[in-house]
Amino acid sequence: MSNPPQYGIKSYIEAKEKDRNDIDNLFSNAFESLDTIIQYWDQLDKVATKFLKESNMEKENHEYQSLITYLDITEPVTKQLYGNNYEEALMDEIDEFCHLYFQKKREMAIMLPDLYAIYNRARGILISPQELRNVCELLNDKGKYVGLMNVNKSLIIHERDFTLENFQNTILDALKSRQKINSFTIAQHYGIQYAIVQTLMDQLEQNELICRDESEEGIMYYENLFNTQYLQYIK
Questions:
Q1: What are phi and psi of 70, to 5 degrees?
Q2: Which GO terms are recorded in the biological process aspect for this UniProt protein (predicted)?
Q3: Taking 90 as the threshold, does the pLDDT of residue 132 lie above it?
Q4: Which of 33, 130, 133, 216 sits at 20 to 30 Å (Cα–Cα) from 225?
């Protein structure tokens, strides 16, 4: 008699990891432009809907549940309620939501795909990626608490004080005093996701302000002493 197939914990973890990678790739591709947002909308809608259903069925992490309760939007903005003022009202809601999120998490920035997931979770009523992108484009001019930066096609919602220019100056000042630095140290200092730090450091490296060295210590960044004149950061 043949042995039945084995479905161990390793296979389960690998399957879950593949699902996460597939979703990450989907979000990265979808938010590159408005055209691709429309192209990927059906898939994103399925992911968000599945996320909502699973979060209701599974026992959620206490810290995450506490965060969702704190950020819960009891009366979400809708087109039916606000009519022609819908986009501006939605922008105000997102502005306030991000402000509360940063206060609760003690963070200063969040990737737009991450915001899409947690914001829709708090609303309970889904908005499309296109709506989110359009509204977040208004934050720099009309928002009270947060803004939107586009760094190498990565869309980042950030506190007003956390700008690419301020980040750049902080890194250069740190390198003058400590010679080298890594992304984990920076992430701890700012209280933001490692992925965001890496995106910003890649931008500074492209601007020839810093350079990297890869060794057993990992990736360490240094001031670029071969650059005689600092380039302006890309807004």
A1: -65, -35
A2: protein transport to vacuole involved in ubiquitin-dependent protein catabolic process via the multivesicular body sorting pathway
A3: yes
A4: 216
Torsion of the alpha carbons at 235, 201, 99 and 89, rounded to the nearest 10: 40
* Encoded amino acid at 93, one letter: E
> Are 176 and 132 found together in one domain?
no
Distance CA 169, CA 166 (A): 5
- In a shared domain, residues 177 and 211: yes
User: Residue 169 falls within a domain, yes or no?
Assistant: yes
Mean pLDDT of 111-140: 92
44, pLDDT greater than 70: no
Residue 57: its pLDDT value, please? 43
Least confident of 84-88, 215-219, 222-226: 215-219
Residues in the chain: 235
Tokens of 6: 């084995």
- Note the pLDDT of residue 14: 54
Please check whether residues 64 and 152 belong to one and the same domain. Answer: yes
Q: How many CB atoms lie within 10 A of CB 33?
A: 12
DSSP structure string for 119-180:
HHHHHSS---HHHHHHHHTTHHHH-SSEEEEEETTEEEEEETT--HHHHHHHHHHHHHHHSE
Distances (CA, A) of 139 to 91, 146, 163: 7, 7, 14
How far CA 96 is from CA of 80, 92, 100, 134, in Å, comes to 21, 6, 6, 17
Does 34 have pLDDT greater than 50?
no
Mark which of 134, 159, 184 sits at the end of a domain.
159
Select, from the ranges 41-55, 132-146, 183-197, the one with the highest average predicted confidence (pLDDT).
132-146
- Integer Cα distance of 158 and 149 in angstroms: 8
